[in-house]
């Protein structure tokens, strides 16, 4: 009787151990066959663009910054795109940020007043991202802007920076009449973007402001709105 009880307990124990072993094997097999390998985490790249307004009385529109691997915001001596025309005549950078060649974009949220700086951060998960472009309008002009396009950032490491100063450009899409109703900035509060083009129709260096003080009697601008080049100081930094 005692022997039979012992045998039953021993058999039950062996059976239980066998079931546990089979369960472990099955779970192991499921984990090996059904769980996909996780790709290694790759940190995104972070860049900041700091722009300082060097003019005496030319507020600048919110800074628009993009990362890309092809294309450009503009080519000197070539016609401006409608997106660049919109920025240069109205200060609205949304069309530039949405250009088809843009991979990642970011914008400042406020006007850059004379002497002030604005820093915009842009992030990309593309480890091969190679170019950066940015632009801002001189809002007390008809179609003046500044910025830089297709800057090579492909070899920048974390902590690296590029610093330079930049001139003013003329989009060539609107005559620099300085007339009342044609300038969107605080000097006039006039019209922004207008699809009609009545100037040379190519991007070039800006000739500057004439102003009423220097003989253009129809101008709404005065001598304080004049500017010399460069008009902005720039620092591009890779922070991650």
Verbal overview:
The protein has 240 residues and is α+β, with helices and mostly antiparallel strands. The protein folds into two domains: 1-38; 45-238, F-spondin domain (Immunoglobulin-like, Sandwich), CATH 2.60.40.2130. 19% of the residues lie in helices and 26% in strands. A six-stranded antiparallel β-sheet has the order 3-2-5-6-8-9. It has a four-stranded antiparallel β-sheet with strand order 4-1-10-7, with no helix packed on it. Strand 5 and strand 6 (144-152) form a beta hairpin. The chain is elongated and about 75 Å long.
Keywords summarizing the entry:
single chain, 240 residues, six-stranded antiparallel sheet, alpha+beta, Immunoglobulin-like, disordered N terminus, four-stranded antiparallel sheet
Strand content: 25-35%
* Global shape: elongated
The average pLDDT score comes to: 90
Q: Could you say which structural class the secondary elements and strand pairing correspond to?
A: alpha+beta
CATH topology assignment of the largest domain:
Immunoglobulin-like
Major β-sheet strand ordering: 3-2-5-6-8-9
CATH superfamily placement of the largest domain? F-spondin domain
CATH architecture of the largest domain: Sandwich
Main beta sheet: 6 strands, antiparallel
- Which class of the largest domain in CATH terms? Mainly Beta
Query: What is the count of distinct domains?
Result: 2
Strand segment count:
10
Using the CA coordinates, give the radius of gyration: 31 Å
Number of helices: 3
Taken in chain order, the helices and strands follow as HEEHHEEEEEEEE
């Amino acid at each position: 009787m005692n022997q039979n009880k012992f045998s039953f307990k021993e058999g039950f124990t062996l059976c239980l151990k066998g079931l546990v072993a089979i369960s472990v094997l099955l779970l192991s097999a499921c984990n090996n066959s059904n769980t996909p390998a996780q790709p290694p985490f790759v940190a995104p790249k972070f860049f900041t663009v700091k722009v300082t307004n060097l003019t005496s009385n030319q507020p600048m529109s919110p800074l628009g910054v993009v990362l890309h691997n092809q294309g450009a915001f503009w080519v000197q001596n070539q016609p401006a795109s409608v997106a660049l025309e919109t920025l240069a005549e109205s200060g609205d950078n949304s069309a530039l940020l949405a250009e088809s060649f843009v991979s990642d974009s970011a914008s400042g949220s406020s006007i850059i007043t004379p002497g002030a700086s604005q820093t915009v951060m842009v992030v990309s998960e593309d480890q091969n991202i190679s170019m950066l472009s940015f632009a801002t309008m001189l809002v007390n002009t008809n179609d003046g802007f500044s910025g830089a396009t297709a800057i090579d950032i492909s070899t920048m490491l974390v902590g690296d920076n590029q610093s330079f100063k930049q001139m003013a450009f003329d989009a060539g899409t609107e005559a620099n009449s300085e007339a009342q109703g044609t300038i969107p900035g605080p000097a006039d509060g006039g019209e922004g973007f207008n699809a009609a083009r009545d100037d040379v129709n190519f991007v070039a260096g800006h000739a500057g402001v004439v102003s009423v003080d220097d003989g253009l009697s129809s101008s709404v601008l005065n001598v304080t709105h004049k500017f010399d080049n460069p008009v902005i100081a720039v620092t591009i930094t890779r922070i991650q």
